[in-house]
Design a protein that fits this description.
- There is one protein chain.
- The protein is of the alpha/beta class.
- About 40% of the residues lie in helices and about 15% in strands.
- Helix 2 (about 25-45) runs antiparallel to helix 9 (about 275-305) and helix 6 (about 155-165) packs parallel to helix 7 (about 185-200).
- The model has no long low-confidence stretch (mean pLDDT about 95).
Length: about 425
């Protein structure tokens, strides 16, 4: 065996070996789901007859771009819905969500956030903070929310009372910067059923970020009208260089496309500029890449739980997104963990992440992401706001083998600074 170029304390390696022995059943379940989602994706590519001609770049207005239109159909077929809008010109998941919100909602409409306060970057889009930036509130769109229960669950009785009369019900699938459980597909099915019973006309939008291909079904298969997400997370498979998507009912995708381009133009314009090949190839690889990220998250949960930290979810809990939260309980531990992840990354391993006032957030944030695509959350990354309970949110890993090394690098960094004792 070749000597390792990585140096980890012996007790950390022993803890890692014990963790890996314990998590084998969880890995088997992840692999079984990956097989199912991979079959779904491959079947879509075959059914749509994807060929080399679909990779031909378009420029200018992008009229009659076969590849762009085929990519939309691929997403719609995979997510079992009527239509999709997939573009490299979406700059983030928040941009895709904002396009869906502004595309559907009109002055006087009420948006109801079913899962409590939305993720930080959406607050200014809604108008919960910030002034003069063109928020929904500034356009006369009303906002209401259903606070989560004390144990972080959706308050279904309160949702029953509030669902009537809302134009849109918004569901955030992942935990965001909180320690609540991410929503499972069955959770979303139940929530959609409650909303439909009270308000059949409501548009149900799910923020699907971090959740694609984690389970065998998607929200559009259990009652959601629209879903949206980022291509530098799960569905881009680590290859998409930018972009996002909206998928769902055709009558809702149409106004969203007009919001992205212009009324009367909609989906007919938008040059692909040569991005279609990597977007399609990333989509094809996405189920496998997601499985690698899930294995890395399960390993991180088992390892840091063995060190005495609370982890959310635990290693043996069924996964509903790729995020692993670890409550580290202190600023120094949080910074050291992120710096360790960075040092175990393929890109910019020598960089030293520090907290900073990142646009869109209401507190200092530290982000580690030694990624081939800047900020890609499907690649090995860790980030967190510098506030109680000083929990780090860890996700990604294009391969389990390298993701494992990143997790060990985080543990070693903490150990070297005297803030982790694996023997305890």
């Amino acid at each position: 065996m070749l000597p390792s170029l990585f140096t980890f304390d012996r007790t950390i390696l022993q803890a890692a070996e014990a963790a890996e022995a314990k998590i084998r059943p969880a890995f088997a379940q992840i692999e079984a789901r990956c097989q199912q989602t991979s079959e779904k994706v491959l079947a879509a590519f075959i059914a749509e007859g994807i060929g080399e001609s679909h990779f031909t770049p378009s420029t200018g207005y992008g009229y009659d771009d076969r590849g762009r239109d085929a990519l939309d159909r691929l997403y719609a077929r995979i997510f079992r819905c009527e239509d999709a809008l997939v573009r490299h010109t979406f700059v983030s998941g928040t941009h895709a969500l904002a396009t869906a919100l502004f595309g559907v909602l009109r002055p006087g409409d009420r948006m109801l956030s079913v899962t409590g306060r939305p993720y930080d970057t959406l607050e200014e889009t809604i108008g919960l903070r910030g002034e003069g930036s063109g928020s929904l509130r500034e356009f006369g769109i009303l906002y209401d929310e259903v606070p989560l229960t004390g144990d972080g669950k959706v308050d279904l009785p309160l949702l029953e009372r509030k669902a009537a009369g809302c134009r849109m019900a918004y569901i955030q699938r992942s935990r965001g910067y909180s320690l609540r459980d991410s929503l499972s597909i069955e959770d979303i099915r139940t929530i959609c059923g409650v909303i439909r019973a009270q308000n059949p006309q409501a548009v149900i939008l799910v923020d699907n970020c971090y959740g694609e291909f984690v389970e065998t079904l998607e929200p559009t298969e259990v009652g959601a009208d629209l879903i949206a997400g980022s291509l530098i997370k799960n569905p881009g498979g680590g290859l998409a260089r930018s972009g996002g998507y909206i998928a769902g009912r055709a009558d809702l995708i149409a106004p969203c496309s007009c919001r992205l381009s212009a009324p009367g133009m909609g989906k007919e314009v938008g040059a692909s500029l040569g991005e279609t090949r990597t977007m399609m190839q990333g989509l094809f690889l996405a189920p496998h890449v997601v499985s690698q990220a899930l294995k890395t998250a399960v390993f991180a949960a088992a390892l840091f739980e063995s060190f005495g930290y609370a982890v959310y979810p635990r290693w043996d809990t069924p996964r509903t997104d790729i995020i692993q939260a670890v409550a580290l309980g202190g600023r120094e531990r949080l910074i050291a963990f992120c710096q360790g992840i960075q040092s175990g990354s393929p890109i910019d391993a020598l960089a030293l992440p520090e907290p900073w006032d990142m646009p869109g957030y209401d507190s200092e944030v530290i982000m580690a992401a030694g990624a081939f695509t800047l900020g890609a959350s499907i690649e090995l990354s860790a980030d967190a706001p510098l506030r109680e309970p000083y929990a780090v949110y860890f996700q990604g890993g294009l391969t389990y083998e390298t993701g494992r090394l990143g997790v060990l690098s985080a543990a070693q960094r903490m150990f070297s600074q005297g803030i982790l004792d694996p023997a305890d």
